[in-house]
Every structure is written in C-alpha cells, then in structure tokens.
Design a protein that fits this description.
Two copies of one chain form a homodimer.
Chain A (H helix, E strand, L loop, with lengths): L1 H14 L12 H26 L7 H14 L17 E3 L2 H4 L1 H24 L2 H22 E6 L1
Antiparallel strand pairs in A: 1-2
Helix pairs in contact in A: 2-3, 2-6, 3-5, 5-6
Chain lengths: ~160, ~160
Amino acid sequence: MKRSLIFAAAVLATVGMSSIALAQAPKPEDEIRYRQSVMNVIGRSFGALGAMAQGKMAFNAQLAADSAAIVDMMSKLPWNSFGPGTDKGAPTKADMKVWSDADKFKEKADKMKSEVTKLAQVAKGGDEAAIKAQVGETGKACKSCHDDFRLKEFRQ
Amino acid sequence: MKRSLIFAAAVLATVGMSSIALAQAPKPEDEIRYRQSVMNVIGRSFGALGAMAQGKMAFNAQLAADSAAIVDMMSKLPWNSFGPGTDKGAPTKADMKVWSDADKFKEKADKMKSEVTKLAQVAKGGDEAAIKAQVGETGKACKSCHDDFRLKEFRQ
C-alpha cells in the first residue's frame, strides 16, 4: 500500500490540477471561476427543466429527475466561493451587494437551495405537472437573486 | 395549474439562462464553456481528494465521500459537449486528436468514468487506505487522457 500511495502522489502531482492547491488558501480568480463553473453547470441542467416546463422540449421524467439531481448537488457548491476578497480578481457579474448586503444574499441563496431540494424530491416522483410547477418556483428563486445580485455585464 | 405554468414560463424566460436554448442546437462556444465548467468542478473536488491522498490535507471521510460523489456525477456530463463542430469557437485546450482519434478519446473517457465510479463506491465505505489508493488509480486515468488529449496552453 505504501508504494502505491507514493505512486499516487507522484501521479497526482503531475495531473496539473491547480485545485490541489485548495488545501491552502484559494486564489480569488480561482474562486470566481469555480462559482461561475458551478452556475454554468446548473444553467445547463435547469435549462433542460425550464424547456420542458415551457413545452419547448418534450417532457421526459428520467431527464427531469437526472437534471434536478445535478442542480441539487451543484446548488450546495458555489456559496463558499463568494468569500471575502473574491469580489474582484477576474471578470465577474457578482454585484458588490453580495458582500455589502451579505445577509440578504444568504437569504436568497438559502431560498434557492430549499426550492432546488424540493425540485429534486418532486422530480424523483415523476409527476409531470408537479415537476413543472416546482421548476417555476425554483426559477422564481433564481431570478429573485439574479435581479438583486447579478449584474447584466461582466465587470473586472 | 395552468396559470402557474404560464407564470413559470414567464419567469424562466427572464432568468436569462442561455442554456434554455439547448432544447435546440447548442453553440460551440457554449459547449466549450460547459465542458470546461464541468472539468473545473471535477478539479475542485478531485483536488481535495488528491490533497488528502498526498497527506497535504487531513483525511476526512465525509469530505472524501461528498467529493467523490460530485466527481462521479460530473464525470458523466462533459463528453456530449465534445461533439462535431466543437473543436473551435472559444479558447480551448482540447487537442484536435479528440476528434481525429475519437475512439481512443472515448476509451480514455470510459476508463476515467469507471475509475470514478469505483472511487465513489469506495469513498462511501470510509476506508482511508482504500480511498487513497483509488484516488491514485483515478488520477492515473485523468493524467493518461490529459497527456494525450489536453494541450498545455489554450488555443483558439
């Protein structure tokens, strides 16, 4: 086992994942990129749910459940990457209110997480109308936070 | 229900997620950004596992299991975004061999997925030595594909 661990360390050292450095303090630009990546993954899966809810894509219960599970898992990830010092360092659409009105930002993030958790539960059940209704509730939570805390254009 | 669905559609239309357009054909730049986002999310969670395997971060069984579950879910997502026409359209590190040697790329992607599935299973068990060993195996699969199919610098 010891030899295989040493080998594992050697391999990992060469994989070239800067995130390994996250055992130490993350850089602001890495945090910005990470939260944008998470939001992008959320957007893809929620986009499919939205298209189904709007009748732009045929409803597919399995796709709905899979997409909701992805959104649910991702919904837990970005918030720690809005920490102090991550308001700049790379182009970002995060409004400075994320930091100046942190309580409200947390409240809206929590609302989104709870709607997404409900969505994942409902989606497992396969009830088309219930899923579409909960997609709408979740979309409202997304929009409410974006309206207040996401700029329309990137800033440096 | 009908009114709430109409409202949901109105909300979703204003959330501003370009991914909703994915019900139609995705744009190459969106596919490139999506696969990069997925890889970035994988990198963050695998980075934590790697740091634990290398002893750079204290081993935490819960964090290991959570991180492996994220990597497992994400490992299924990027491959469809390497489709025809996505070799350019935004800066990318994808080597042209992704498309010219697609069988080998698929073989390496499949190897990565199977190692990640094993990792998620082992991580649920909580056995530190077994997890660290499987992190090493998974890292080898990452590296093997990156060596052949990921450029060191972005190209247009």
